[in-house]
Amino acid sequence: METTLTVADVQALGNKILANLEKVIVGKRQVLELTLIGLMCQGHILIEDVPGVGKTMLARALAKSLGCTFNRIQFTPDMLPSDVTGVSMFNQVSRDFEYRPGPIMAQVILTDEINRATPKTQSALLEAMEERQVTVDGKTHPLPRPFLVMATQNPIEYEGTFPLPEAQLDRFLLRIRLGYPSLDDEIKIMGDQQFQHPINTIEPVVSLDELTAMQEAVKQVFVSPAVKRYIVELTRATRENQDVYLGASPRGSLGLFRAGQVRAAIEGRDYVLPDDIKALADFVLSHRIVINPAARLKNLTSAQIVKEIVHNLPVPGGLLSKA
User: Fold this and answer.
1) C-alpha angle 240-262-323 in degrees, rounded to nearest 5
2) 127: nearest Cα among 104, 161, 111, 99
3) How many CB atoms lie within 10 A of CB 235?
4) Tell me, what's the pLDDT at 252?
5) What angle do CA 204, 209, 21 make, to 5 degrees?
6) Which CATH number fits domain 221-313: 3.20.20.70, 1.10.8.80, 3.40.50.1860, 3.40.50.2300?
7) Which of 23, 201, 280, 303 is the most buried (most CB within 10 A)?
8) Which residues sit opposite 149 in a β-bridge?
9) pLDDT digit string (tens) for 96-129?
10) What are the b/e assignments for 122-141, b being 16+ CB within 10 Å?
11) Phi, psi at 66, each rounded to 5°
12) CB within 8 Å of 312: residues ≥ 6 apart
């Protein structure tokens, strides 16, 4: 029997997940909210940050908060696609080939240093991320639900790395950065971990049935025609910008639309505001943009371009909520 949740239910359950995550990840409420948005949109998250700021702990804490299975895949240049998806092996007893699942067969996947793998191995993730399935020796195997990929890459160290192609970057709903903690937060982290890591003490706070109900409930959040137009105008502006070689795809518009619905729901609203879209634009669109060489010489970043577009584009007024 399916459970129908109200926006208030979604907000309450979302706050339970966030409170649990905050026991492990200190002082990063915005990042945790973005992670929750990615989960409820059934999207994937790219975490671009330096080592040691809690990327792995964030993925583990999320999996434990939901009671999900968790696997960590450490990408290296010598990895093969079969190291991710699994292999078919001949069974001497049954005299037939049987599928031996790879580490991708879990509900929350942390792909660590994804840009260290070769393009061939990176491409093994494409089908899994988009189709929620893997194909090995011509046979298709569905992935468990929910399925969330949290990929990390180090923005500083480029030696021995293979930049993610545009097609793969476009599969990620959000790109986020954890950043270093504040002085007070770093002191609190030391106190919290003096005897044991908080990750060892947290328990599931939301069932998988409740998560599925939350993912369905947020689809009912109202998005006015004016806000839909604003979303598309933002995305189209990235394609028409003189500093951009390749702008955001329609998948970027859809990502903003879905993410806006979830942000509204976790704030207790059943309608999306332009402020929701403005708050999410950088995280949803900037990694989908390829800037041209002249802009690189000016040290322009895709995030700066998106922020400029958001600043200059008129915000819609009028009726934004349900009549």
Assistant:
1) 90
2) 104
3) 25
4) 92
5) 30
6) 1.10.8.80
7) 280
8) 109
9) 878 888 899 999 999 988 888 888 888 888 878 8
10) bebbebbbeeeebebeeeeb
11) -105, -5
12) none
Q: Could you give the CA distance from residue 63 to residue 277 in angstroms, rounded to a whole number?
A: 27
Phi, psi of 108 (to 5 degrees): -120, 120
Residue type, 275: D
Tokens 């604003």 locate to 230
- The pTM of the full predicted model, rounded to 2 decimals, is 0.89
- 194-203, 243-252, 292-301: range with lowest mean pLDDT: 292-301
Distances (CA, A) of 169 to 17, 123, 240: 27, 11, 20
H-type alpha helices, 79-194? 82-85, 119-131, 166-169, 183-192
Q: Which of 67, 44, 32 is nearest to 211 (CA)?
A: 67
Q: Which residues of 22-41 are buried (b: 16+ CB within 10 A; e: fewer)?
A: eebbbbbeebbbbbbbbbbb
Class of domain 1-193+206-219: alpha beta
Residue ranges covered by each domain of the chain = 1-193+206-219, 221-313
In sequence order, the 6+-apart residues with CB closer than 8 A to the CB of 27 are 181, 182, 184, 185, 188
> What whole-number distance in Å separates Cα of residue 33 and Cα of residue 256?
15
The gap from C-alpha 71 to its chain's centroid, in whole angstroms, comes to 16
